[in-house]
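Both lines are retained for reference:
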Amino acid sequence: MFTNQRFDNWSLRQSTLEGLEILGWENATPVQRDTIPTALQGKDVIGQARTGSGKTGAFGIPIIEACEPTGKLQALVLTPTRELANQVSEEMNNIQGNHGLKIITVYGGTDLEKQARQLNDGVDIIVGTPGRVMDMTKRDHINLTIPTIFCLDEADRMLDMGFFPDITWVLEKMTSRTQTLLFSATFPQEILDAAYEFMDEPEFVLTNTEELDVPPIKMHSISIGRANKLWALSRLLSNTTEEDQVIVFCNTKRMVDLSVQKLSKAGIQVKGLHGDLSQNQRERILDSFKGGDIKTIIATDVAARGIDVDGITLVVNYDIPDDMDSFIHRIGRTGRIGREGQAWSLVSKNDSGQLAKIIATYGLDIASSSVPDLPSEVEKDSIAYKDDFMESADVFGFVPIKLTSKDKMDYSSRVIANWFAEKMRCDQLAIGEIRFDQDTVIVNIHSSKVSLALKAIDKYDLNGTKLSAEV
């Protein structure tokens, strides 16, 4: 992840170098190496950067170097979420050392008057979300005609969240703007169009999309049907210790809510985090998680963007993300600062193709594993295992059952189908194709009737022939 470029080889303020030293930063990451010299010259920059790439330092260091502690607004940084605004502000404060810049976060969901008083007392750099920055500008607490530097962080996420009209509004108000820095993990056409409209011959800092920083963690996958993913998750959680902290990722807000509801009902303490929660709710949950009061969070990708907790030891992909880069973002939440970490992925039949694509794209070493056993001190699963045959079913929902016997099975398809229909007390439509293969018979049974079929085979003989069955 790090290059040979040292920060002290650049002409940076002593206060900045001291701040970087306290942070333990000696060598620049690739995006920092390629961005900082250009940005220090005051040029516009478009950078490709993902979570964990060091992008805050890439734009934070040049901004800090260009600003003086005058109490007049000189730079504006826009982020998509409140959590990320806090994270960026905190890191920039650490980077500046004792330079004395007043960096204020401005975002919705908190006391507007309190933020207004802070702004009116003087500010050098604002880190905020688009909506609240617009609101404070309209109320005359922010004068956007003054700052000369504008930075847009996670532009693609801004686009996904519908913020681009607000960003355009802000840019048009910044009439004194002389430098624009834009960072994005991907570059949809809308972002490129905006860049060419609002930026002056920008320098591109692009990294290969497949060269992502994968933390040195242990990765496992479990092949399991959706009906038993909660059971598998409860097993993983039961094997954690009091010191462990866990993030579980779901693809949808509804799945977050359902998982939290069912796990809580089973006596497992978890909290959900997604975009439908208010800013105050999200901040309370994050503060409790960072403070260690909450050990496990179930979240969507967007909500988890602002989570930066060094003590996370386990990441669970309850769902495999549709976006391949999101997988790297997720597992990058653990294994920080040299700590040990694990990432487990619960893979249903529908997920297997996407995981295979992720493994091939990034060359990941993901071990195929079984669901862990219960710890010796735990007698019973919090969530019970369910019979689930959908993983073996075809597209029509039929599951092949292989029948064997010590005796010769000299029966026609019709005799076998009638026997199953009678013993299961079901319609013949639940019995699909029957195939004969040397000494075995393959009977396709609808997934909803497989349990009944297995019980019937165990309980009854077929015209005097004892059968054994295997799904």
